[in-house]
Amino acid sequence: MKYLVRMDLIDPGPLLSPQQVAGILENLVVPSFQTLVKLEKDRKILAGGLEVGARSGVFIVDAPSNEELSRLLENLPFWGIIKWQVTPLESFEHRIEGVQEMIKHLKAGAK
Amino acid sequence: MRRRLTFLSAFFVLALLIGGTASAQQRFLVRMDLIDPGPLLSPQDVVGLLEGLVIPSLTSLAEMDKQGVLVGGLEAGGRNGFFIVEAESNHALSNMLANLPFWGIVRWHTTPLESFEERIGIARRHVEHLSGGE
Questions:
Q1: Which residues in chain A have Cβ-Cβ distances shorter than 8 Å to B74?
Q2: pLDDT tens string B13-58
Q3: Are B130 and A21 within 8 A, CB to CB?
Q4: Chain A 31-60, residues with CB within 8 Å of chain B CB atoms
């Protein structure tokens, strides 16, 4: 199943020291991006990237279930400092079938 | 209609292939929201929209998805969809979207993306800069 995942880095606020910011980047952000790159290479993430110039990103992931997707996201080191939004997707092909079914009903109702 | 779609898909693939050799591809997130048709359309009008605009567009998107030009789908149960596509430029993306038959009845949102790899480099430079400030 395909899911669109949107991630927004939560606002760290102005009180973090440069050392703390460096720590977050080194220990949470960079390793997470490295994992995302690996998932992209393994074709678990089908496409994705970060919004240019912003602290948000999106990717489309293929996961067998909601639970598996949860595990995948929770395993990212920066899971706790990201606001996650997940949207389940259906394929264009599947929707064409649904629309064709709808047309049949509408035509039958019009007779 | 089928010939037109095949031609369109071939055009997109060709444009993307040519773009791939001529310049770097850029990645975009595209969100599409079907505009509210309102309650005044007759069932016949709705059928016309679905048959004439929606199905041909979804077929075209499904073909491009199969060919690896884009990755995406429709929000389960919703009238919105998303895909991530690579295009040579903003202009090329605009052309691609404008060629979809339902272009005029969809509200489009496009967001330029950069790769995770690219951002790792930026984060490392930030770390270096912040650590140098100690």
A1: 89-92, 95
A2: 444 444 444 457 899 999 999 988 778 888 899 999 999 999 999 9
A3: yes
A4: 33-34, 36-37, 40, 46-52, 57-60
Cβ–Cβ below 8 Å for A40 and B76: no
Please give the Cα distance from A99 to A108 (Å, whole number).
Answer: 14
Residues of B in contact with A106 (CB under 8 A): 43-44, 46-47, 50
Output phi, psi for B111, to 5 deg: -130, 120
Regarding beta strands A82-90 and B70-75, do their DSSP bridges make them parallel or antiparallel, or are they unpaired? Answer: antiparallel
B27 forms beta bridges with B86, B113
ipTM reported for the complex, 2 dp? 0.84
Give the global pTM: 0.82
Enclosing H/E stretch for A69? helix A66-74
Token couple for B34 = 């079907």
In whole angstroms, give the CA distance from residue A102 to residue B29.
29
- Scanning the structure block, which residue is given the tokens 């059928």? B47
Alpha-carbon separation of residue A45 from A53, A59, A106, B13, B58 (angstroms):
22, 7, 38, 22, 22
Instruction: Measure the N-to-C terminal CA separation of chain B; round to a whole number of Å.
Output: 65
